[in-house]
Write a structure and sequence with these properties.
CATH class of the domain at 3-59 and 87-97: Alpha Beta
Radius of gyration: 14 Å
Helix content: 40-55%
CATH architecture of the domain at 3-59 and 87-97: 2-Layer Sandwich
Distance between the termini: 14 Å
CATH topology of the domain at 3-59 and 87-97: Alpha-Beta Plaits
Number of strands: 4
Shape: globular
Structural class: alpha+beta
């Protein structure tokens, strides 16, 4: 059964430009490592410190394999380090969802 990971980020509102750079870098890294990226969403009006991402996988096991590959991917590691260096992500929540079928 396919699962989708819903990621909710609490970001530093004064570093939205850096978070956008971080998100754009994942656009080729995530698919290359096995995730189906539906996109990243940035705040534009209203709340200015929340961003979201949606990524799907064929199973929870596929997600676990993806996470292992991502940590050994050179560009993936560099992007994690970029986020830490700039301290742009204050909190990250992951919710695992599956589609409701009729």
């Amino acid at each position: 059964m396919a699962i989708t990971v819903f990621i909710r980020y609490r970001i530093d509102p004064f570093k939205r430009d850096k978070f956008e750079t971080y998100a754009r870098r994942w656009l080729d890294i995530i698919p290359r490592n096995g995730g189906e990226l539906h996109g990243y969403w940035m705040p534009c009006e209203g709340t200015n410190n929340i961003a979201f991402a949606l990524i799907s996988f064929e199973s929870l096991a596929a997600y676990e394999n993806y996470r292992a590959r991502l940590r050994s991917d050179g560009k993936g590691k560099a992007n994690f380090e970029f986020a830490e260096q700039h301290q742009l992500i204050l909190e990250e929540e992951r919710t695992f969802l599956w589609p409701v079928l009729r």
